[in-house]
Write a structure and sequence with these properties.
The protein is built from five helices and two strands. The protein has about 70 residues and is mostly helical. Strands 1-2 form a two-stranded antiparallel ribbon. The mean pLDDT is about 90.
């Protein structure tokens, strides 16, 4: 799924929280978070749900395909 991008870093910065803080909230490792933010790795369903629930956005708002409107 290399064509999947995400808005995770943008939402995290808007909430003014660090990667470490978000890792604790989402119960994921820092390396996993960095893979999602930096390398656009598509997270597992449970992690996607926790991310979207925390930021109160849909999966379509958080994760999108290259070329789709953001």
């Amino acid at each position: 799924m290399s064509d999947i991008l995400n808005n995770l870093q943008k939402y995290r910065v808007w909430k003014n929280i660090t990667q470490d803080q978000l890792c604790k909230i989402l119960k994921i490792s820092l390396s996993n978070l960095r893979k999602i933010e930096v390398y656009n790795k598509y997270p597992k369903y449970q992690v996607r749900q926790r991310i979207c629930n925390y930021f109160n956005v849909s999966q379509n708002q958080m994760f999108y395909r290259k070329g789709d409107s953001k």
